[in-house]
Amino acid sequence: MSMTSTDDEIATEQDTITAIYKRFDALREKADHRFSSAIQPTQVSTPGGKLERNIRAQHFSERAAQLSAAEHGLVIGRLDLDHDEHFYIGRTGLYSEDYDPLLIDWRAPAATPFYRATPMERLGVRRRRHIHLKGRRVVRLDDDILAIDELDDDERQHLTGEAALLSSLQSARTGRMADIVATIQAEQDRIIRSELDGILVVEGGPGTGKTVVALHRAAYLLYTHRDQLAKSGVLVVGPNATFLRYIDQVLPGLGETDVVLASMGDLYPGVETSRTDAPFAAAVKGSLRMADVLEQAVTRHERIPPGSLKVTTDRDTYLLDEETCQRILDETRERAERTRQPHNRMRQFVAKKVLNELVRQEYERLDSVLDGIDIPLEADDEEDRDLGELIDQNALYREFRTSPSVREALDILWPELTPQRVLTDLYTDPDFRAAVTPQLSQAERDALHRADATAWTISDVPLLDELATLVGELDATINRAERRRRQAEAARSQHIEEQRQLVHDAYDVAMDMAIDEEVTMPVDASLVLERYHDVDDRGFLAERARQDREWEYGHVIVDEAQELSPMAWRLLVRRCPSRSMTAVGDIAQTGAPDSPGSWSEVLDPVAPGQWRRGQLTVNYRTTEQIMNVAADVLAASGADAVAPRSVRPDGEKPWAWQVTDDELADALPGLVREERVHLETGTMAVLAPRSRIDSVLASVRHACPEATTGDDENVLDAPVAVLTPAQAKGLEFDGTIVVAPDEIVAGSSRGYSDLYVALTRPTRRLGVVATGPLPDGLAHLR
Ligand SMILES: Nc1ncnc2c1ncn2[C@@H]1O[C@H](COP(=O)(O)OP(=O)(O)OP(=O)(O)O)[C@@H](O)[C@H]1O
């Protein structure tokens, strides 16, 4: 076996690749064709016929999209096994016309050795070959020979080892994250294929692939647990909109579309925000104590007015004294607790109690008027023959129920609440706030104050969501939903026969699809039915999930998870009660001053005993030279964490430049120009403390007029991005200049973490421009 990619070998592989693409084209054409015929107007008007058409249209459009996503770099490599067997690994699985496997999907169990086999643990692999394609042309082969004992000396000298990985890491960045299916490393593969259940916390320093691995895990889980996840979808939560744009091509590129990408500010339907609070206010809002505060804030709206509550109707005026009100509230709360009903749901119950009381009082009044008639004490007493004959009790109830005065009384005792209203009261009314926050200090209480209560922030989203579960839907919404449910129920029973027919049809469609795609596994008809049945009414899964606060996802992936507050975790667990989650993060990169110091602090309260850890130890982004600088800063910060080891020895020397404050504006354009010359085509960022962003942008624009800041949604496409370290979190650039590192450190109690984040963004070149003393750890750069 030879390890060099001779022209002969390339030519041989080219023949195979050409044959695979030929088959691929045929399948793609078939999917396109099936899609076109599925969307043809049809004569069939039965529900079964429409269903079949919908299923076909959506299925084949998805299949066509999946195939189209797989076209670029369709074949990843080849595994040569013991006993002269071999097969090809690709972005999707393909069968020949005779049902022989042509290409194994990278997520299939059979592909695992491609990522995990090592010379020490060969897993039956003799050679792993990475096939590099340009379009459909084979341009290079990189071989890892694992059966080293069988090699002669000459062959050993040609060992290419990690050539494929290194060439991928050294390529210039585009401003968008790319997939890594060709070069997933063994420790990453273990995390990607880790079981679905429970919360997997993936820890790892900067650049260890936490984000990219989490996204490949989503693709793997959707492939492996399709039946479970296709119905419920996967939610990926990232820190901000720029980050989501940075990663949004990865999953579609892997053929997966049933994924919702959102930041915390998007997770409460109807409120979309990227506004942040001051760090102290954010810390108070994120604290677990807010769960109690919100509960008290809701209870506080259930009020007993001092004195008596007066109800005036056309008939008379009635008084509900304090004792009666108290009894009604006590009984309601007791029932709410027993039946676990939210506040708004109990309003009907309160109304019933109030009406009973009014009817009782009316009977009493009539008793005195109709002297001599035997009046019962309880209005709903069935024994009440004499009075019952005189009064239409139902009419009396109706009369009270529709009285504006009764409604007003109810609004005092048990008002209908919205999450927005409760939070507004908490933020704007100091007396209300003081009453419901006995567990907060005065400073914490004051931090909650806000003049414009509806200027919702990211930290408000978990609070609104928590309140939504405490108050429940409004009556009107419930009634609407109830009406809809009843109509649907009626429609369902009417069409029971048609429904049976649908299942029948779905089964036929499922079988057809199995045959069309030459898959040997039968497709599950009930899954087909569930997945596509209401396509017409409610749109695709991701859209439906995004709009529904009560949607329960099959799996949730959380990036930069170290930044999430305990209240945010409570929201996420509500979105995924099964707690099947992947949380990736690095405590050493935490920016928020009060954020948790350990994973157990945040996860034990929401998922005790249900979470486990995975570790990534190797940095694939940053060169060794740059990582050494970052590691010094990490050590100087006194953090326990150890910086990850870099696999890239190919780096250029980081530099530091000292200027005075006055010189900075003049110096920056020259430095930026020089860096861009070094980088040639690569991407670049200038990272600065928030207070300097405007002035830095102004001077960078002298060198590069298209430079822009993190507030611009096109920042990832700009040749130079001017960002704060917080905005740069999770992103990467070929070159980075860090401005005023001492101010970044002094900016918050987590300033060293921010500097560590800033220093670990570049893939190739790092420069530091200081206007003050260089912080510990950077001193020797000068
Ligand atoms: N196996 C791999 N093959 C090729 N590239 C890889 C591999 N693993 C990681 N990378 C690349 O390394 C870079 C860093 O990955 P990623 O952003 O996922 O790291 P991270 O751990 O999330 O970093 P940070 O915590 O700093 O945001 C990305 O460009 C990613 O594509």
TrEMBL record:
In terms of PANTHER family, this protein maps to: DNA 3'-5' HELICASE, UVRD / RECB / PCRA DNA HELICASE FAMILY MEMBER
Q: Which residues form the signal peptide?
A: none
Annotated Gene Ontology cellular component terms:
cytosol
Keywords, in A-Z order: ATP-binding, Coiled coil, Helicase, Hydrolase, Nucleotide-binding
Using the record's annotation, list all stretches that form the UvrD-like helicase ATP-binding domain: 183-623
Its organism's taxonomic lineage begins at: Bacteria, Bacillati, Actinomycetota, Actinomycetes, Jiangellales
Q: Coiled-coil segments, which residues?
A: 464-498
Q: Which GO terms describe its molecular function?
A: 3'-5' DNA helicase activity; ATP binding; DNA binding; hydrolase activity
The identity of this protein, by name, is Helicase
* Species per Swiss-Prot/TrEMBL record: Phytoactinopolyspora halophila
